[in-house]
Amino acid sequence: MDLLTASGMETAAPPVRRVRVLLPLPLASPYDYRVPDDMELEAGAYVEVPLGPRHVFGVVWAVGGPGDNWEAGVAANRLKPVIRRFDLPPMPEVSRRFVDWVAAYTLSAPGSVLRMAVSVSAALEDPKQLLAYLPSGDSPPPGFKMTDARRRVLALMEEDGPPRTPADLARDAACGIGVIRGLAESGLLTPVALRAQPRPPIPDADRAGPELSPDQAAAADALRAAVDARAYSATLVDGVTGSGKTEVYFEAIAACLKQGRQALVLLPEIALSSQWLDRFARRFGVRPVEWHSDLAGAHRRAAWRSIANGEAPVVVGARSALFLPYPDLGLIVVDEEHEAAFKQEDGVIYHARDMAVARAFLGGIPVALVSATPSLETLTNAETGRYGRIDLPARHGGASLPEVTLIDLRRPDSRPPARHWLSPILTQAMGETLAAGEQAMLFLNRRGYAPLTLCRSCGFRLQCPNCTAWLVEHRLSRRLQCHHCGYTDRLPETCPSCEAEHSFVACGPGVERVAEEVAQLFPDARVALMTSDTLVGPHAIQTVIEEVRAHKVDILIGTQVMAKGHHFPMLTLVGVVDGDLGLGGGDLRAAERTFQMLHQVAGRAGRESRPGRVFLQTHMPEHPVMQALAAHDRDAFLAAEADQRRAMDLPPYGRLAALIISGEDERQVDKLARDLARAAPQGDDLQVLGPAPAPLALLRGRHRRRLLLKTARGVAVQPLLQTWLGSVPIPAAVRVQVDVDPYSFM
Ligand SMILES: [Zn+2]
Ligand SMILES: [Zn+2]
């Protein structure tokens, strides 16, 4: 453009157009870039921008305009231009607000949250188009020679059939690619461009679902009404195991599909949920789009694009699925809302259930929180009227609740023999179950052979060199393992402390040791072991589940990986080897979690017409958790638990936030922890506890200290934390993690 007029006066250059781009990096704020003349950008556009010598993707967070005062930042002539914009619909405004909201709530960098929303940057690239062919219907040109191979290819191509790729045709017609090319050159095949990633199939909302009981139908009506209201609401769906909660929220999904909007279901462990996917397919005719960490490259890219394009009608995923940029989300379901797996403990520390409620609020949509053992947090919100509540009392299909027997391990007549772990009461019941041609399950939430290995001569215990943790013996793999950092070692021949030979003995049971005992007691029984060590990947789990369902297994032994919602019709006996496990420790939710887990395990027994029996081995039969389990009185347990927490102002009646200070240099870590304690916020309605060594005072070679901020329920902890952290310089070698609403106290 000619900048000089005829008179030689300089005209004003056109104003530089600026955008503020959020990068997926832990930066304090977005960066400014110049918009090239030939590019149009709006807020939410996915762009590629230079960052030092690199090119990175980012999302336009704001577009400059009159009165934005951005000139106070980088001078216009030093702004770098946006390189290109990706061919995708812009990230919706609600998704961008959600990123900022989560960042502010968790005290994380917005870019770190953005990274969860766009975790597969390769998906931003347009997928390659595939070449495919349709029959042209023309007659062969003069001189065309019809060979057998050419005839076979043409015969494969039906009229009105879908376009087919050369590779596909060559395979089915058993010919070379050259044959296909020849047909195309002679005009008998017409090339068409095929999407490399097919659209996800559309679930059929009108397909007839299973017959609902009156309770289920009423619950489904209530959830449908919430979807049709097209407004924010949060509803607890509280129903005992086997009451058919899934079928109920499927009806809400159907209502959402009829509106043409997207629905999201969050599951705690998606890899374990192929039964869930099958149920979905039975109701809607197709499987939903999955989103989880086991999803491999191309599938992951395809899933992300179909979600961002609005082509994925229903998405089922692990917690990270919440952050995906849905253009028109109409419903969120959080199934098993009480599960600890919804809490992410590294990177951006957040609880997906709580964030799901926030996302629903920002988007003006309903969220359903579903559980047989709701968390105290959610129950309290339902009791105060903040959340709606739907109860599903009965077990669907006439199944009755299992009979729960507490086995008092302190009594001589019910105690297992020395170096054994199963009470004679339990083993007798197992014998009866097997004799009746039914299945039994033993639950012990402890991997490996024995939790502790010590020297018989001097008492030396084998400990992980990187963590405050004992090494766990795994007899199947003949290794000692640290369950926190993955350190492994061989069992030493001589004790490193007293040099006694072959002096190490296993203390206490792990699942492998229980399996050994079962093999001695029931040598003819077919036994399957289900733990994360023996089951690698979702297919391995699926294989065992199918074997149990096909009754190729008599006794199933496992850790919590098998406690999930699997449905085994012939399973009528559940034995809990150590019901007290998990009740110790300084975790405020220990009792609640133990109750939830044991309740879920107990729910495995007798899910169809056969009555179930549950035997719970415990040293504390009088503990409220055990009493509540035996009496099937969940509400009495929760009421007692709530009273206790209320008296101590603990969540959900008060608020907590933790600071975890860690580093390799113990002195530096201690100094920062003390400095932070001195600068701690003060006030009538708050209290700072610590610094104290974390229970895992050493983890992966890093020393760890904890501080805990405890406040009244109404206090906004984020501004307090921000001021607190800003008041103390933090050395580069020491890390401070902020955990708002902590669930782990390790
Ligand atoms: Zn020794
Ligand atoms: Zn370790």
TrEMBL record:
Its cofactor is Zn(2+). SMART domains: DEXDc, HELICc. GO terms for molecular function: 3'-5' DNA helicase activity; ATP binding; ATP hydrolysis activity; DNA binding; zinc ion binding. Zn(2+) 2 binds at residues 464, 467, 482, 485. Zn(2+) 1 binds at residues 455, 458, 495, 498. It catalyses: Couples ATP hydrolysis with the unwinding of duplex DNA by translocating in the 3'-5' direction; ATP + H2O = ADP + phosphate + H(+). GO terms for cellular component: primosome complex. Binds 2 zinc ions per subunit. Gene3D superfamilies: P-loop containing nucleotide triphosphate hydrolases, PriA, 3(prime) DNA-binding domain. It is an enzyme of class 5 (isomerase). GO terms for biological process: DNA recombination; DNA replication initiation; DNA replication, synthesis of primer; double-strand break repair. Keywords: ATP-binding, DNA replication, DNA-binding, Helicase, Hydrolase, Isomerase, Metal-binding, Nucleotide-binding, Primosome, Zinc. Signal peptide: none annotated. Belongs to the helicase family. PriA subfamily. Initiates the restart of stalled replication forks, which reloads the replicative helicase on sites other than the origin of replication. Recognizes and binds to abandoned replication forks and remodels them to uncover a helicase loading site. Promotes assembly of the primosome at these replication forks. This is Replication restart protein PriA. It comes from Nitrospirillum amazonense. The gene is priA.
